[in-house]
Write a structure and sequence with these properties.
Layout lengths: L8 E4 L9 E4 L15 E4 L5 E3 L2 H6 L10 E2 L13 E4 L5 E3 L1 H5 L10 E2 L4 E2 L9 E4 L22 H8 L1 H4 L5 H7 L13 H7 L4
Antiparallel strand pairs: 1-2, 3-4, 3-10, 5-6, 6-7, 8-9
């Protein structure tokens, strides 16, 4: 593990396929320029701030971190579950399971007030407690969950019926055919509406 600014990784842009632009580990001794992957753990707070997980501080658990701190992130098991991932300091051999980061209290870490996707940093910081989340999870971008109940108005009933039967109504060529198609014997749902009301409700024919 290393920061992008460490110089360990090199950006390889693709002029013709930007989706193939990637960082590679240029100095790897085991393979030729293997692709570097972003670590999938972040810290977030209820105000929508996102920041990198404090790897060095967390693995040393309150003691003075090694300088420099070189970290590994071995994974045991095939599921990719956080409990199978361990962050380990190569200097002092301290190690912690990533599963603990989801269960433990992270109030010892302050939220720096970062909005990286907006390129904004709150100068006064943030006092909200932070939680560990997974990169790519939908809750990374939706910090507040709200429920809404929509009650359609009475006058929207016909529009709702047209929307529900749109597959049958969309190819009607004329008003005369519409009167035939929406007859009570064929579409009982339109029994309380006339073909003229259906036509006025939506310009489908």
């Amino acid at each position: 593990m290393a920061m992008v600014e460490s110089g360990v990784f090199q950006l390889q842009p693709d002029r013709y396929r930007r989706d193939r632009t990637r960082y590679v580990h240029a100095g790897c001794t085991k393979a030729t320029n293997p692709t570097a992957l972003s670590v999938r753990f972040l810290l977030a707070c209820r105000k929508g701030h996102l920041t990198d997980f404090p790897w060095i501080e967390d693995v040393h658990a309150g003691v003075a971190p090694c300088k420099p701190s070189r970290l590994n992130l071995p994974q045991y098991g095939a599921t990719g579950d956080a409990s199978d991932i361990i962050v380990k300091c190569r200097e002092c051999n301290r190690a912690r399971r990533m599963g603990d980061a989801f269960d433990s209290d992270l109030t010892k870490f302050k939220c720096p007030g970062h909005h990286p996707h907006l390129r904004i940093v709150e100068q006064k910081g943030c006092k909200e407690p932070v939680k560990t989340i997974l990169l790519g999870a939908s809750n990374s971008w939706f910090p507040i969950v709200m429920s809404a109940l929509s009650i359609p108005r009475e006058e929207d009933k016909l529009a709702k019926l047209i929307e529900e039967r749109w597959v049958d109504l969309k190819d009607i060529p004329s008003f005369e055919v519409a009167k035939f198609a929406t007859a009570t014997s064929r579409m009982p749902a339109f029994a309380e509406f006339t073909a003229d009301q259906v036509r006025q409700s939506d310009s489908i024919f």
